[in-house]
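Summary of Year 1 activities. Much of the first year was spent building the evaluation harness for sequence design. The harness presents a backbone, in tokenized form, and records the residue chosen at every position. We chose the following record to illustrate the format because it has been used consistently in internal testing since the harness was completed.
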């Protein structure tokens, strides 16, 4: 007799109902988490499920509930960037914790080129997931329109910056932090230290978070020398390039606000190479408070804290609630506060 033919048959709803002494419909309601079943009966059903090792047939269940218990997480960055930047790990951890608590599977989709965009669009339109969580968008990114055409509920990480309402612009649900307010606090801190040549290493200015942080810098230093603003790309290498440019064009710079911690780490390396003492000669402030970066650089980094993991949880929570509530009652945007964390760099 083969192993396949000797295997025990998979337990059915009917078998669970017989073991628990209830109807098949009662078992179905308990397994699907529906209300209206007396607790004494629900306990008997759950005990029978455990004893028989019953596993729900998700395909059959989705036909009834029209749910797939899966959510796509779409990151508009290449995999080399995603797996090198702890920001994405923290956000994914928050998303994963929330989805796991609701027994929902996370499906990770990354995009690097046009072929990837089309692949993501086909997957989302294929009815595999209940919704999408999308972040790290760039202003010219075609993903919002692709996702809209796929017809899946979506929550964005970061304030959407596109103006086309059919792409999900104004009113599109999102979770973000107070980028502009956090930047203002960082720059005010540097000014309060008596620094008068404060520079800014921006993030990529086709992303709203970078634009908002630049606006916060300008809120405090509206008349700053344009040479003191250099565009980076949220990477350590980008921070290095920007810091070299600043030292070459503005050698009297005495403070730097970097748009994220990774850029700040690159700036610190260049300052050390050029013999500039931090914070004595040049004070440095970052943004994010990613502990693997902020606490391990030399000196430890003063930075603006945003709760990256909580942002991920809120994105997932907002999407899951949207399955059960009227979408019109869902807030269009949630903005979390930031706070300055002072360490040795400024």
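For this record, the design step produced the sequence shown next.
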């Amino acid at each position: 007799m083969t192993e396949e033919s000797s295997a025990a048959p998979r337990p059915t709803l009917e078998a669970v109902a017989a073991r628990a002494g209830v109807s098949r419909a009662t078992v179905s309601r308990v397994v699907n988490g529906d209300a209206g079943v007396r607790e004494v009966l629900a306990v008997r059903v759950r005990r029978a499920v455990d004893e028989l090792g019953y596993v729900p047939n998700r395909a059959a269940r989705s036909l009834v509930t029209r749910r797939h218990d899966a959510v796509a997480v779409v990151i508009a960055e290449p995999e080399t960037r995603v797996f090198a930047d702890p920001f994405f790990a923290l956000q994914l951890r928050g998303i994963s914790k929330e989805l796991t608590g609701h027994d929902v599977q996370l499906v990770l989709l990354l995009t690097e080129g046009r072929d990837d965009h089309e692949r993501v669009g086909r997957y989302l339109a294929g009815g595999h997931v209940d919704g999408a969580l999308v972040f790290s968008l760039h202003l010219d990114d075609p993903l919002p329109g692709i996702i809209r055409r796929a017809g899946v509920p979506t929550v964005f990480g970061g304030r959407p910056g596109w103006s086309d309402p059919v792409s999900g612009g104004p009113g599109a649900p999102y979770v973000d932090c107070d980028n502009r307010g956090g930047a203002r606090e960082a720059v005010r801190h540097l000014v309060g230290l008596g620094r008068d040549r404060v520079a800014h290493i921006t993030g990529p200015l086709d992303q709203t978070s970078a634009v908002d942080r630049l606006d916060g810098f300008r809120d405090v230093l509206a008349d700053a020398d344009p040479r003191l603003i250099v565009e980076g790309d949220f990477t350590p290498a980008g921070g290095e390039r920007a810091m070299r440019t600043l030292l070459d064009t503005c050698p009297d710079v005495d403070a730097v606000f970097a748009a994220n911690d990774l850029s700040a780490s690159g700036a610190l390396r260049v300052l050390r190479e050029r013999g500039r003492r931090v914070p004595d000669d040049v004070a440095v402030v970052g943004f994010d408070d990613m502990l693997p970066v902020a606490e391990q650089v030399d000196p430890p980094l003063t930075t603006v804290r945003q709760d990256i993991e909580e942002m991920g949880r809120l994105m997932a929570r907002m999407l899951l609630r949207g399955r059960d509530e009227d979408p019109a009652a869902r807030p269009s945007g949630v903005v979390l506060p930031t706070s300055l964390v002072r360490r040795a760099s400024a």
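The chain is about 45% helix and 15% strand. Quantitative recovery figures across the full test set are reported in Table 2.
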